[in-house]
Write a structure and sequence with these properties.
The structure is a single chain. The longest helix is centred in the middle third of the chain and has 25 residues. It is globular and about 45 Å long. Helix content is 38%, strand content 17%. The protein has 9 helices and 9 strands. The protein is α/β, with parallel strands linked by helices. It has one domain: Acetylglutamate kinase-like (Carbamate kinase, 3-Layer(aba) Sandwich). The chain has a 9-stranded mixed sheet with strand order 4-3-5-2-1-6-8-9-7, with helices on both faces. The protein binds uridine-5'-diphosphate (UDP).
Length: 239
């Protein structure tokens, strides 16, 4: 039987930096990186146009130093630079297995990658290249969740996929509460009203206002990304 076609034509995958860390307490686990790259390659081969946003939490989070007295804006710029490192690592892992990619940074650094140019990013997608958006929105006081939502809207994505270490959105933290149940679907309003903390409220409301569904799934399982795009497996849809 032919495999089910992916439900979406163009998607943005947001991965937190912590996913890349694997079981380490800091940095990048190369096994995890390679596994993520091969899952992404599998999706690209089906013809889905893909953009990526990776967080920086495995290296640096602005709020942590700001909490210890550093000026918040400076700490946030350090966080944005951490996301550039992750973007370059993923780019290298993808190109090693033959996936064409471009990194575009919201903070121009021309020796390292392209600057963010909307029309150029769209062209890359049309040509089947994976576009990795780095440095968030290039502005402090934001997170990469909000950056992912903004880029998903700007790129005209059909869905924003949030790849985490949990396989969806639960009524409570499934790691702490055995009675926690997973939602199959949720409305944006429910996420905001119940303060479910799937993504930042600004990211959720941006997706609500632009009618882009958010799909929350576990990126830790091998092959799950493509399965979820086909509507198979376990995930929560917010629409
Ligand atoms: N950041 C920022 N503006 C942005 C995106 C990110 O200031 O548009 C900074 C912020 O300090 C944040 C850090 O970059 O803590 C890393 O991103 P994030 O915490 O979202 O990473 P994740 O939790 O997804 O790994």
């Amino acid at each position: 039987m032919p495999a089910t076609q992916p439900r979406y034509k163009r998607v943005l995958l947001k991965m937190s930096g912590e996913v890349l860390m694997g079981d380490q307490s800091f940095g990048i686990d190369t096994d995890v990186l390679e596994r993520a790259a091969s899952d992404i390659a599998e999706v690209v081969q089906t013809g889905v146009q893909l953009c990526l946003v990776i967080g920086g939490g495995n290296i640096f989070r602005g709020i942590s130093l700001a909490g210890r007295g550093m000026e918040r804006a400076s700490a946030d710029y350090m966080g944005m630079l951490a996301t550039v490192m992750n973007a370059l690592a993923l780019q290298a892992a993808l190109e090693k297995i033959g996936v064409y990619t471009r990194v575009q940074s919201a903070i121009p650094m021309q020796e390292v990658c392209e600057p963010y140019i909307r029309r150029r990013a769209l062209r890359h997608l049309e040509k089947g290249r994976v576009v990795i958006f780095a440095a968030g929105l290039g502005a402090p006081y934001f997170t990469t969740d909000t950056a992912a939502a903004q880029r998903a809207a700007e790129m005209g994505c059909d869905a924003l996929l949030k790849g985490t270490s949990v396989d969806g959105v639960y009524t409570a933290d499934p790691k702490k509460d055995a009675k926690a149940e997973r939602y199959q679907t949720l409305s944006y309003q429910e996420v905001l009203a119940k303060d479910l903390r799937v993504m930042d409220t600004s990211a959720v409301s941006l997706m609500r206002d632009n009618h882009v569904p958010i799909v929350v799934f576990s990126i830790r399982e091998r092959g799950n990304f493509l399965k979820v795009l086909r509507g198979e497996g376990v995930f929560t849809t917010i629409a």
